[in-house]
Amino acid sequence: MSNKLKGFFQKLARAFLIPVSLIGVSSLIMAVGCVFTDATIVKVIPIFNNTAVQYFGNWLTTVGVQVLHNLGIIYAISLAFGLTKEKKEYAALGAFVGYFALVKSMNLLITNFEFVKEMFPENGITTVLGVETVNVGIMGGILVGVIVSLLHGKFKDVKLPMAFSFYQGPRFIPIISLLVLSLVGQVLPFAWVFVQMGIDALANV
Predict the structure, then answer these.
(1) CB-hemisphere CA count at 13 Å for 74?
(2) What is the DSSP code string of the chain?
(3) Cys-Cys crosslink for 80: which of 67, 91, 118, 190, Cβ 3.0 to 4.6 Å?
(4) Distance separating alpha carbons of residues 4 and 150, to the nearest angstrom
(5) pLDDT per residue as tens digits for the range 47-66
(6) Beta carbons of 136 and 126 less than 8 angstroms apart
């Protein structure tokens, strides 16, 4: 393995620690919330059976669940941020824009072409950020994060003609991320359907 490739995987491993730490804390918050709202525990500890405690428990659970329900975009931003050496804020913005572009692009595909939607089982379609789209899960976020980090490395110092000079350098990262991941969203469902089949096959073993 070349030193360059080894260095990439080392950075990737460190970048994964960012969302993993958040997942651990959010799971803990959700678990504490469940302690206050679980019916069995409420029977044992009657003081929990009041509006204030139940609301507090539901609030904690909601806070924790929201992180777990949006792992795709969390991984996208975390990996893009963690894999870049400088001007990380542009990579993070590019990941957010790129992830949403991916989601919306797949939405456009399944909305306008019914046969694309029918390729997937019921659990193959989901709602992300309020948009019906193909369920690529965490892998979609990882893909976005890696792609944006590569785009950042290639275009962070790009020079444009004078008329467009405002958009050159790191400002170009969110723009190119939007365009590239919109295109990826038009292609990914046709590849992901085979991944989905494999997941379903393993689930039925």
Answers:
(1) 17
(2) --HHHHHHHHHHHHHHHHHHHHHHHHHHHHHHHHHHH-HHHHHHSGGG-SHHHHHHHHHHHHHHHHHHHTHHHHHHHHHHHHH-SS-HHHHHHHHHHHHHHHHHHHHHHHHH-HHHHHTS-GGGEEEETTEEEE--HHHHHHHHHHHHHHHHHHHTT----GGGGGG-GGGHHHHHHHHHHHHHHHHHHHHHHHHHHHHHHHHT-
(3) 91
(4) 13
(5) 888 889 999 999 999 998 98
(6) no
Q: How far is CA 157 from CA 59, 137, 167, in A?
A: 45, 32, 11
Cα separation, 47 vs 43, whole angstroms: 9
Q: Kindly tell me the burial class for residue 3, based on how many C-beta atoms sit within 10 Å of its own C-beta (0-12, 13-18, 19 or more).
A: exposed
Burial of 101 (0-12, 13-18, 19+ CB in 10 A): buried
Other residues' Cβ atoms within 10 Å of the Cβ of residue 193: 16
| pLDDT-derived band at 155, boundaries 50, 70, 90 | very high
Residue 75 corresponds to which tokens in the numbers above? Answer: 């991984």
pTM of the model: 0.86
Residues 150, 85 contacting (CB under 8 angstroms): no
Q: For residue range 167-190, what is the model confidence (pLDDT) as tens digits?
A: 889 999 999 999 999 999 999 999
Q: Is 116:189 a contact under the CB 8 Å cutoff? A: yes
Does residue 188 contact residue 136 with C-beta atoms inside 8 Å?
yes
